[in-house]
Amino acid sequence: MPYKIAVLGGDGIGPEVTAQATKVLERVGTIFGHTFHFTPGLIGGCAINATGTALPADTLALCRRSDAVLFGAVGGPQWDDPTAAVRPEQGLLSIRKELGLFANLRPVRLNEALVDASTIKPSVLRGTDLVVVRELTGGIYFGERGRRDGGNTAYDTMVYARSEIERVLRVAFRLAQQRRGKVTSVDKANVIETSRLWRETAMAVARDYPDVTLEHMLVDACAMHLIRRPATFDVIVTENMFGDILTDEASMLVGSMGMLPSASLAEGRLGLYEPIHGSAPDIAGQGIANPIGAILSAALMLRYSLDLEREAQAVERAVDRVLAEGYRTRDIASSASEAITTTVMGDLICARVTTA
After folding, report:
1. Which of 44, 139, 201, 270 sits in a 20 to 30 Å window from 6, CA-based?
2. Is 188 designated active site?
3. Are residues 241 and 122 in the same domain?
């Protein structure tokens, strides 16, 4: 059967890395006998330039009639005015809300070949294999905000309903059942009321999963222990802003933000898949961006939206093989002279996608 994929390259290096991900998916189709139909759409700064809005109605309609969405990145210096009425990031926030993408999965697995790419000691890093489940459509990013007192006082409101917390917790617990059976629920319950509701809900949900161990951890402690003992974590689940910060920190465990994928999931099969890095306008157009995060995001797409587990594993094995052979883009290379280009990395991974 043909699979319909919306491709939203966005800004900066987004189109460069999504091009490599679609190339790998085409290779998967050839090897495993699938057909992927890729349809481009505008989002972010390029959409503002073309239509005046960060998420055009045509793009949203495209996503809704697709089986999955492959996303690049949004933003750049030409849209950096914080007072602007329309900003690229609004496109990403809007698409999450409109498509109901409430659960963001960000796996962090140390590849042994890259143990020296991180600034953290190998003895601390070894064995790191965790997933952060971030609630994506609630919290401070979507709460009431504004200015008062003539613009001299600003406020952002964090709001969570029990139902929002419960559904993302259940995603985390089900994931832990398939992994090592441990959930770390991260909050700030000693200070914040929404966190007290979060912890209360976590304890209630945990009763439905007796085979999973639940621990509670304050967000500041979690930030410390991610660096001190990352291999002790299995599944971390937390609210929107905490998850945003912790996952960027966790990316440094594997040496570069360019390495990490993510999956943003709705209630059904639909999902949006993107590398966790931003648009990196400083290196856009130079052919040096790391496409591995985007390619591994495509692997998550195969797994979660298309139910093609064997194919997902084939892509992940191909990435591991290329890294084990010593190939590196500039962000993870020991020197610029050893680095390969974005396209060459994509080609090498394509060549190693096999059925075995």
Report:
1. 139
2. yes
3. yes
> Would you state the pLDDT for residue 355?
87
- 64 and 170 both lie in a single domain: no
- Give me the DSSP letters along 282-322: TTTTTT----HHHHHHHHHHHHHTS--HHHHHHHHHHHHHH
Residue-wise pLDDT for 159-206, tens only, equals: 999 999 999 999 999 999 999 999 999 999 999 999 999 999 999 999
Clarify whether 220 is annotated catalytic: yes
One domain, residues 124 and 243: yes
Distances (CA, A) of 238 to 12, 90, 263, 345: 29, 22, 15, 33
Catalytic position from the list 3, 11, 141, 304? 141
Q: Pick the catalytic residue: 67, 187, 234, 244?
A: 244
CA distance 258 to 292: 7
Point out the domain boundary residue: 254, 278, 306: 254
The answer to whether residue 83 scores a pLDDT higher than 90 is no
Domain that residue 350 falls in = 1-100+269-356
Same domain, 275 and 242: no
Identify whether 347 is a catalytic site residue: no
- Quickly state the pLDDT bin for 297 (edges 50, 70, 90): very high
> What DSSP element (H or E) covers 275?
strand 271-275
Structural domain tally of the chain?
2
Asked whether residue 216 carries a pLDDT value surpassing 90, the answer given is yes
249 and 198 in a common domain: yes
Catalytic-role residue among 58, 81, 220, 282: 220
Under a CB-based contact definition with an 8 Å cutoff, are residues 33 and 26 in contact? no
pLDDT at 287 over 90: yes
In a domain? residue 143: yes
Is 248 an active-site residue? Answer: yes
